[in-house]
Amino acid sequence: MHIVPPNGKPLIFEFGGLVLDRVAHDKALVELAASKGAKFLLGNRVEGVKGNSVLLEDGRKLEGRVIVGAGGNNDPIRRQFWNEDSMNIPVKFILMSGNHTDAVELHFGSMAPGGYAWVFPKESGSNIGVGIQRSMSLGKSLNRYSEEFFSRFKGDILFSGAGSLPMSGTIENFVKGNCVLVGDAAGMVLPSNGAGITIAMIGGRIAGLSIVRHLKEGSPLEEYQLHWERQMGRVMRNSMRSFKIGSLIFRLPDWLLNIAFNRFTRGIIWRAVTCRRMFWII
Q1: What is the spatial distance between Cα 148 and Cα 30, in angstroms, rounded to a whole number?
Q2: Where does the chain hold its CATH 3.30.9.10 domain(s)?
Q3: 3 state SS of 275
Q4: How far apart, in whole angstroms, are the C-alpha atoms of residue 151 and residue 161?
Q5: Number of alpha carbons in the 13 Å side-chain half-sphere of residue 177
Q6: Is CATH 3.30.9.10 correct for 2-21+88-165?
Q7: What's the whole-number mean pLDDT along residues 7-15?
Q8: Residue 211 CB: number of other CB atoms within 10 A?
Q9: Cβ count near 137 (within 10 Å)
Q10: 27, 43, 87, 160 — which has fewest CB within 10 A?
Q11: Rounded Cα gap, residues 103 and 120, in angstroms
Q12: Per-residue pLDDT at 137 exceeds 50
């Protein structure tokens, strides 16, 4: 992994991981769920929940003893029952043909104020993207920032996409009544690095096991949050702390960031990105 300040001179770290083909990954999850009995109602919108009923836009009702909101940061169940706001960072990305890097790159500085830009190598190109904090963008749009960063690279644009990430950590309560939130809907994104797939799958597993125990043994649904806290609570708190400190540091001008990213601070930076305590004692 390369952590890249504005001057382009990276701090280089050994980093083990797997770059996914996200489309193939999601397709495999859909097929696995379908093989276990899940049914997909494509082209249907959820209007809301009333008791054990999920109300669809076309007037139909679906019944469920437990209702799970897994619809991202704009999940309709969260909108209905939770009034908790998250800091949503807008992101824009492209898939571009060509060879641009042999490492996972995270770029920090004025090209992505309050967030970061990235370049992830893929089998036949790169995933290149930008995420910013609007409050630090000086009135400049995400489109402008992304176009400027994308212009650094050569190749054909194969796909483009956009969205937003909840970056203020998990919400206070994952469960209300018979409704449960998971993934981005529950704020399960690590703020210091934007990672969401792994912890959402961990959260989904914990939620699924807790729901089974609730239905079979009568245990409270709230056990879901207790098990999540035991397994992921410390990681999330470390990541939130690093994000808050980073948001202050990234207000500095580029020339100061260049000085701040050095061989003496590399250990602190790496601990922040990997969701450990930045300074060992706090």
Answers
A1: 36
A2: 2-21+88-165
A3: coil
A4: 16
A5: 15
A6: yes
A7: 93
A8: 19
A9: 18
A10: 43
A11: 7
A12: yes
The domain 41-86+169-248 belongs to what CATH superfamily? FAD/NAD(P)-binding domain (3.50.50.60)
Which pTM does this prediction carry?
0.87
Q: Which two tokens stand for residue 53?
A: 């009923």
* pLDDT range class, residue 281, cuts 50, 70, 90: very low
Looking up tokens 């009034």 gives: 83
d(CA 89, CA 181): 20
* Every domain range in the chain assigned CATH 3.50.50.60: 41-86+169-248
At which residue do the structure tokens 């770059």 appear?
A: 19
Looking up tokens 């959402």 gives: 200
Q: Give ∠ CA 248-234-164 in degrees, rounded to 5.
A: 55
Q: Are strands 105-107 and 2-4 parallel, antiparallel or unpaired?
A: parallel
What confidence category does residue 280 fall into, taking pLDDT thresholds of 50, 70 and 90? Answer: low
- In terms of residues, how long is the chain? 282
